[in-house]
Design goal:
By secondary structure, this protein is mostly helical. It has four helices and no strands.
Amino acid sequence: MSWHARADPGRKHAGRPGVGGVPEAGSTALLDDTGYLAALCTTGAHVPQVIRVWRTRSTRDIALRTLAVLVTGLSLRLVYGIWRGEVPLIAGNGATLMLASSILCFKLRHG
């Protein structure tokens, strides 16, 4: 049941493709492409930080608590993506989780 049907049980068209917020079959590729683009942006945003940490071996300016919350959130979103079977969520959160985890390891190891 779509969220529209739960929000408004009297809604006549809830759950029909193209009506009530349910994407049509052709638009699924667009949704996936949007997910992949978002994953590319969020993952790519971490790459410069990882490179800097590797080169300098310094994580002094990175807050441990913030990094720990980020890694936790990414882990949970990865599990969510796996449960839903959403490849863009799995790919994006998995890649970003690896990058953020590498920074966290440096932070724990080098302070």
